[in-house]
Specification:
The protein has 371 residues and is of the alpha/beta class. It has a domain at 205-369: Alpha/Beta hydrolase fold, catalytic domain (Rossmann fold), CATH 3.40.50.1820. It is built from eleven helices and eleven strands. The chain has helices at 33-51, 61-68, 84-110, 122-139, 153-168, 175-202, 239-242, 247-257, 304-312, 329-337, 361-369, and strands at 4-12, 15-22, 27-32, 205-210, 218-223, 233-236, 261-263, 275-279, 293-297, 316-322, 345-350. The longest helix has 28 residues, at 175-202. It is elongated, with a radius of gyration of 27 Å.
C-alpha cells in the first residue's frame, strides 16, 4: 500500500511548497501552497465585501485582509486580492462594482453581431475584437493586471471599436438584450453576495466596520460563541507596540477572552466606552477616558502631568510594561507608580519582550482575560 507523508516545507519569494514523499515508490513531488492560499484569499474577499459593503478604499484591500481576515496561522503578505474583480469589489464596494459590471454587460450585449449583420468580414472582425476583450477579462480573474493603465490600451481600443461599429450600424439595444445584460449582472452580484454571506456566517468572529469622517474606520469584533455580556472594550493600537498587522493580535484577544472589542485610532465621542486598552502613544487619549477599567500596554513615556492623570482615575488600572526597557519607558512608569500602587492599580512586566509586544501576546491575553 502506498503511503505519503509531508516531510518539510520550503519558501521562496513568498511561495510555500509542501514536499511529499511516496514511500512505496520513492517518488517526491511538491504542492504549491500559494494556490490554496489564493482560494482562502478569494473566499475572504467575498466575506470582506459583505461585512463592509462600502469598501475599504483604493489600495487597502491587501492590508485589510491581513489585519481582519487572514487566518492567524498564515503569514504571507498581500497587496491586493490577486484577482482584479475581487480587488475592485473589496476596495470600491457593491454599488460601484455593480454599476461597472452592468456597464460592461450592456456594452457586450449591445455590440454582439446580429444574425443579419452584413458586410465583408464584419462578423469575423467583430469576433476578433470581442476575443481580445474577453482574453483581457479572463486574465483579470487570476491577477490584478487591470490596475495597470497601460494594459488597457488594447482591450480598451477594441471596446471603442466595437461601440463605433455598433453605432455606425444604427444598432439599437433591443429589449431582450437589455434584459440579458441586467439579468446577468443581477445574477452575478447575487451569487457573489450570497457566497459572502455563507462564509461570514461560518466565521467564529463577527465584524462590523463603522465609517467615520476620518480615513480610519472603527472596527467592532465579537466572538459568535462564548461572548461576554460586558460592554465592548475599546482598543487604540500603536504600530510601534503591536506591529503593523496588529489586527491579528486583536482578533486573538477577542476569540480567547470572549470580549467584544472596538478598534479605533482615537477615543470616540460615541459610543462611550467603560473599558479601554491604550497601546504606546495612545496614552495621549487619557484625558478623554472616563471608564471603569483601563489597560496601558507598553505606554510611552510622557509628560508628568499627563501620566499623573492616569493615577488619578477612579478606574481599575493595569499597566503592562516591557521587560527589556529599550527607551526608558519601563523605568519611567515604575518610578511614578511607586507611591501610587493600591487596590485599583497593578503594574506588571511582560517577560522577554521589548517595545514590540507581539512575542509576548499570550501573556498579555492572560493578564487581560479576567478584567
Amino acid at each position: 500500500m502506498s503511503e505519503c507523508r509531508r516531510v518539510g516545507s520550503e519558501g521562496q519569494k513568498g511561495q510555500t511548497y509542501n514536499i511529499h514523499i511516496d514511500i512505496s515508490e520513492g517518488i517526491c513531488w511538491s504542492e504549491d501552497a500559494s494556490v490554496g492560499n489564493r482560494l482562502v484569499l478569494w473566499r475572504s474577499a467575498l466575506q470582506m465585501a459583505v461585512e463592509n459593503p462600502r469598501g475599504f478604499g483604493g489600495g487597502n484591500s491587501g492590508e485589510a485582509y491581513m489585519q481582519w481576515y487572514q487566518p492567524l496561522e498564515m503569514t504571507a503578505g498581500y497587496r491586493t486580492m490577486v484577482n482584479s474583480y475581487l480587488t475592485f469589489l473589496v476596495e470600491q464596494g457593491w454599488l460601484v462594482f455593480s454599476l461597472a459590471l452592468l456597464a460592461f454587460l450592456f456594452l457586450w450585449f449591445w455590440t454582439a453581431p446580429r444574425s443579419d449583420s452584413s458586410g465583408l468580414g464584419y462578423r469575423e472582425f467583430s469576433a476578433g475584437l470581442r476575443a481580445a476583450v474577453l482574453a483581457f477579462a479572463v486574465s483579470g480573474m487570476f491577477s490584478t493586471v487591470m490596475e495597470e493603465p497601460v494594459l488597457w490600451m488594447i482591450p480598451g481600443g477594441c471596446g471603442i471599436a466595437l461601440a463605433f461599429l455598433a453605432a455606425r450600424n444604427s444598432r439599437a439595444l433591443s429589449l431582450p438584450r437589455i434584459i440579458w445584460a441586467a439579468g446577468s449582472s443581477a445574477i452575478v452580484v447575487a451569487a457573489l453576495y450570497g457566497s459572502g454571506l455563507v462564509w461570514s456566517s461560518q466565521d467564529p468572529l463577527h465584524r462590523k466596520f463603522r465609517h467615520t469622517a476620518s480615513s480610519e474606520a472603527m472596527v467592532e469584533l465579537a466572538p459568535r460563541e462564548n461572548r461576554s455580556s460586558a460592554d465592548p472594550w475599546l482598543i487604540i493600537p500603536d504600530s510601534a507596540v503591536m506591529g503593523k498587522i496588529h489586527g491579528k493580535l486583536i482578533r486573538r484577544l477577542s476569540l480567547e477572552t470572549g470580549k467584544a472589542l472596538l478598534v479605533s485610532a482615537t477615543m470616540p465621542a460615541y459610543p462611550k466606552t467603560t473599558h479601554a486598552i491604550l497601546a504606546g502613544r495612545a496614552i495621549e487619549e487619557i484625558p478623554n477616558f472616563e471608564g471603569s477599567a483601563l489597560v496601558l500596554l507598553n505606554p510611552a513615556a510622557t509628560e508628568s502631568n499627563l501620566a499623573g492623570s492616569v493615577f488619578s482615575l477612579k478606574a481599575q488600572k493595569l499597566i503592562l510594561l516591557p521587560d527589556l526597557d529599550e527607551d526608558g519607558r519601563t523605568a519611567f512608569w515604575e518610578k511614578l507608580a511607586e507611591n501610587a500602587v493600591g487596590k485599583d492599580l497593578r503594574v506588571a512586566r511582560i517577560e522577554g519582550v521589548g517595545i514590540q509586544v507581539d512575542w509576548g501576546w499570550d501573556k498579555v491575553i492572560e493578564s487581560i482575560k479576567d478584567l
